[in-house]
Write a structure and sequence with these properties.
The chain is α/β, with parallel strands linked by helices. The protein is 42% helix and 18% strand.
């Protein structure tokens, strides 16, 4: 079976146009038609019907599409690895939480470029990233700690102070000052399986607000895992939410969000770099950790300490220094 034919089917299923597929692959339209006809003949099934607005994958087409997509992505990774080798670059797989993508990822990519390192970046939740490190799907996880898995070694990197925020209009008549005041407002939160959800529950229960699930329905809004979604809904006066204050400093400065003077504070989110203990002394890992620490320092130089704090790194006699 020809991989190019599977790639052609993938792009046709994505673009739903022979013309656009040919243009994207830089081949003629007759070549596209030939490849698809041959692929369907070899498989013995039809993969799609119609074209344009009427385009629709058959049952067989829907079943093989994800596998074709995976093959295209794998081929792209192989080409990227080959280019990196040709350019004399080392490549490392990094997984990171969205709070990093929204803060010091640009500094990290810039420093890795200077060090002639190439990174394959993926984002995800902390538990997913730790699992990916254990399974060797990624080399380094930059995520919210702590790390309790005995097979992993972690390096503390930085802390994000957390504060309650909302739209000024929502609290114009009465500014909440305590956790009990917050419990009377709609609360915007992430899904139950997320780190933020668990920390939110702990926060309320620790300060005497019990039976959160028993609050009226609009009090506890599950909006997914995105920090940006939480911030946007808060800025639209949908409710209140607790977020890393560094991430929403721009919305605060332009008046879309306001910080709430809640007496009971959150513990900061600590970000760690997690790697397999068996890989701690790998030179590429060590070089990457050095670039990570430099990126954190550069980002910290642009933020006041009440918004973002780099942590002191132990370097004497310990891996990851």
């Amino acid at each position: 079976m020809n991989v190019r034919f599977l790639e052609t089917f993938y792009w046709l299923a994505t673009l739903k146009s022979v013309t656009k597929t040919a243009r994207h692959l830089r081949i003629g339209q007759p070549v596209v038609s030939m490849r698809l006809a041959t692929l369907q003949r070899d498989l013995g099934v039809e993969l799609y019907t119609g074209m344009g607005r009427t385009f629709e994958l058959t049952v067989a087409g829907r079943r093989i599409f994800p596998k074709c997509e995976a093959m295209v992505n794998l081929a792209n990774d192989i080409e990227a690895d080959a280019r990196d080798t040709l350019l004399g670059r080392d490549s490392i797989r990094i997984g990171l939480s969205d709070v990093i993508a929204l803060s010091w990822l640009p500094q990290l990519l810039s420093e890795m470029e200077r060090a002639h390192l190439s990174a394959h970046i993926t984002t995800g939740r902390a538990n997913e990233l730790m699992e990916a490190v254990r399974e060797d799907s990624i080399d380094v996880a930059l995520a919210i700690g702590p790390v309790t898995e005995p097979s992993l070694y972690s390096v503390p990197l930085c802390e994000f102070p957390i504060e309650w925020v909302t739209a000024p209009s929502l609290v114009a008549e009465r500014m909440p000052e305590t956790v009990q005041d917050l419990a009377r407002l709609p609360i915007i939160q992430s899904r139950r399986s997320s780190y933020r959800y668990e920390k939110m529950r702990e926060y309320f229960e620790w300060h005497g607000v019990q039976n959160l699930d028993g609050l009226r329905p609009n009090h506890w809004m599950d909006v997914g895992f995105s920090i940006i979604t939480c911030a946007h809904l808060a800025s639209e006066a949908v409710g209140v939410t607790a977020l890393p204050i560094a991430i929403v400093s721009r919305q605060i400065n332009d008046g879309r969000l306001t910080r709430l003077p809640i007496k009971e504070t959150f513990k900061p989110w600590q970000i760690v770099a997690a790697i397999k203990k068996a890989k701690v002394n790998v030179e590429l890992i060590q070089t990457t950790l050095s670039q990570v620490k430099l990126a954190v320092s550069l980002y910290a130089s642009q933020k006041p300490p009440e918004l973002f704090r780099p942590l002191v790194w132990e370097t004497e006699g310990k891996p990851g220094g």
